[in-house]
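dumping this here so i dont lose it
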């Protein structure tokens, strides 16, 4: 792959003075700018190694691919900003947020999906890592491993760590996005996950009360929405407490009020309500795939790549996480995986048929990346620019997803569904059968997309 000129990326973003902060996900350099009108989109897109550019409500996202981490390090060194950098103290954050919502395409929906991405992207490595370990657990159990073996039992404990204490990770990332004290946020999370609640549940107690107001006692371990909404509430409580409390007692009273008010209000209302909402969303998606069968798989497999392009696929992460936490599996990942592999098949078709050496090289490397679950390079760098192959990839994903839906195939761990992460599909009464059939669906998606591309696509001369 060509060496990416980070200096030219900085110039295309309007220079160092225009850059507020930066972070990255698996494939994208995500930059917050003072003035988006200074961005030279065409200049950045034309750079070697840059696969595309996506404008979010609050971030400018430059699609790099798997090499993004090294580009990010050079970017930070060159610009002098960091992921933790803050905006100008005189900046009116509320006005900036209103302007973003007013001027951005997609408005509130764009902001919503950007926010979901900012909350979940930082914890994806932990989810994927423990997801992989959980997949290994399934493999070992299928091969006869027993919980009576202390080594294996302790390995299971480690593999389940992120799902047991997921609220702490969400509290930290949500606090960062909503600019509140992360340690106060973690304390609120600790209060919500205190052993006292689990003890009450174990003793058969389903309700308790504060100030005479009853609330449902819930074990929030592994939950998603309750802690996210709790920290969003806490960010506003902290903000307004800090605004009105003056003097030396601020350092004590602001966190005390934030912790007490946010936790109590969450236990009364937000916690039970959002917990129920999360369960219903997960149940609804599960019902759709359980009863919609091939139709659900066909539709979702067909549109998933478009969701990735729009960035709204991040919205499914909390749903899938909730499904894994509640029932131990989800019916969605075999379908989204088929969509990923469908785009890989389309890239293979482009590699097979193209006469352009650079296009062939990009298509081949992107095909390999997509087969391992990283789809941005293939989408932004290969199939979308080529036109029809993108839709052939969608058709392949729809066919593979339809077969997965018809067979009711499941994923038993979190992770990027791909050929590489086959272990996440091992589980149930016949672990190897489920995994094998998912791999067959992936192959179907790949072959259909590749065949359509080879037969129907004509490379530009």
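and the seq i came up w/
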């Amino acid at each position: 792959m060509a060496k990416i000129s980070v200096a030219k990326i900085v110039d295309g973003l309007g220079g160092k003075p225009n850059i507020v902060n930066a972070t990255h996900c698996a494939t994208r350099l995500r930059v917050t700018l003072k003035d988006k009108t200074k961005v030279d989109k065409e200049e950045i897109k034309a750079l070697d190694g840059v696969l595309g550019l996506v404008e979010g409500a609050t971030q400018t996202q430059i699609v790099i691919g798997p090499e993004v981490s090294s580009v990010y390090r050079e970017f930070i060194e060159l610009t002098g900003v960091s992921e933790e950098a803050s905006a100008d103290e005189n900046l009116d954050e509320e006005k900036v947020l209103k302007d973003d919502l007013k001027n951005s395409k997609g408005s509130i929906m764009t902001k919503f999906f950007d926010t979901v991405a900012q909350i979940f992207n930082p914890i994806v490595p932990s989810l994927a890592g423990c997801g992989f370990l959980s997949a290994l657990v399934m493999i070992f159990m299928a091969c006869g491993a027993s919980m009576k073996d202390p080594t294996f039992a302790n390995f299971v404990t480690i593999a389940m760590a992120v799902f047991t204490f997921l609220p702490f990770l969400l509290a930290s990332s949500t606090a960062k996005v909503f600019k509140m004290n992360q340690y106060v946020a973690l304390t609120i999370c600790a209060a919500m996950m205190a052993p006292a609640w689990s003890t009450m549940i174990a003793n058969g107690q389903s309700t308790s009360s504060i100030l005479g107001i009853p609330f449902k006692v819930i074990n929030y371990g592994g939950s998603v929405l309750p802690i996210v909404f709790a920290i969003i509430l806490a960010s506003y409580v902290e903000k307004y407490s800090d605004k009105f409390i003056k003097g030396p007692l601020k350092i004590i009273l602001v966190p005390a009020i934030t912790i007490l008010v946010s936790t109590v209000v969450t236990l009364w209302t937000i916690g039970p309500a959002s917990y129920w909402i999360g369960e219903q969303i997960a149940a609804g998606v599960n019902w759709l795939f359980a009863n919609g069968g091939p139709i659900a798989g066909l539709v979702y497999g067909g549109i998933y790549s478009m969701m990735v392009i729009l960035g709204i696929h991040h919205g499914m992460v909390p749903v899938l996480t909730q499904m894994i936490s509640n029932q131990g599996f989800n019916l969605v990942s075999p379908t989204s995986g088929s969509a990923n592999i469908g785009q890989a098949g389309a890239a293979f078709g482009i590699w097979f048929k193209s006469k352009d050496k650079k296009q062939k090289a990009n298509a081949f490397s992107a095909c390999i990346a997509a087969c391992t679950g990283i789809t941005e390079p293939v989408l932004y760098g290969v199939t979308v620019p080529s036109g029809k192959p993108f839709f052939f990839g969608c058709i392949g994903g729809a066919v593979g997803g339809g077969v997965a839906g018809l067979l009711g195939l499941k994923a038993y761990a979190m992770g990027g569904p791909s050929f590489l992460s086959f272990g996440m599909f091992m589980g149930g009464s016949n672990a190897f059968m489920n995994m094998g059939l998912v791999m067959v669906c992936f192959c179907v998606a790949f072959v259909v997309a590749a065949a359509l591309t080879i037969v129907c696509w004509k490379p530009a001369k």
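Residues 144 and 311 are 41 Å apart (CA to CA).
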